[in-house]
Amino acid sequence: MQCISRRPPRSGLTSGAAVNTNKNQTLRQALAQGRLFTAMAAHNPMAARLAQEAGFDGIWGSGFELSASHAVPDASILPMGTHLEMMRAIAATVDTPLIADIDTGFGNAVTVNYIIPQYEAAGASAVVMEDKTFPKDTSLRADGRQELVRIEEFQGKIEAAAQARRDPGFVVIARVEALIAGLGQEEAQKRAHAYQEAGADAILIHSKQKTPDEILAFIAGWSGRIPLVLVPTAYPQLTEADIAATGKVGIVIYGNHAIRAAVGAMRSVFAQIRRDGGIQGVDAALPSVKDIIALQGDAHMREIEKKFLR
Question: Key word Hydrolase present in the record (predicted)?
Fold first, then answer.
């Protein structure tokens, strides 16, 4: 009978933990060095892999995109477990840091304190949490219900998140929704400074204005010691060069372009197939099956087969 040897368990960090620590350091170093970090939204591992292939520094684990991919509103409808498991799948697929969009934290400060280690264990390098009430309404919806929690309440949630992280390199980003709610610059600055004092590592300032004027005014008035984060969905004319030139922004997030690209492409292809009564007019323009198989990691699987299948 063949004897099968068993390797002893590793001591210290597991290889997965070590990889995630490296990802955390990558994001932390970008923020410390003042280099603009670019993150593309993803709603599944394939979108994340394509974003990495395109050269983005990291992945935005978008709650909006995940909700859209399930065909439900971005209004705290999907359970935390659905989002968490998608973040785990994305983090396992890419080598770049993952910034998880945890909306309002799925509850109060107690909830936040419990879920941060879970997102860390899932492979996220950062979370973004917004100061709206639970359940939330998406920020860019026309005439949406934009209700903010008290500053002190949100400070407690930030403190709970910072205390719960196992790796000090894990980044906690506080998202200020005062401009979205129409409360003005003074309230936005007040909240941003309060969240900095509570332990946030960066401030995401959001706007739904069609020009960047409101955001640029906030940036000009920001005297805090931590970097800002922008999501220029509503004001696409603001380029990365413009953002970097402010000297105050550490991360730019492209918040919903993966799902919009996917919907646009599928809608176009599906409509043409119905018009043509077949796939003869679209097939040549689509990525080949061979390309999809390569993106699935087929080459790596073949290597494993050669090594271990006996």
Answer: yes
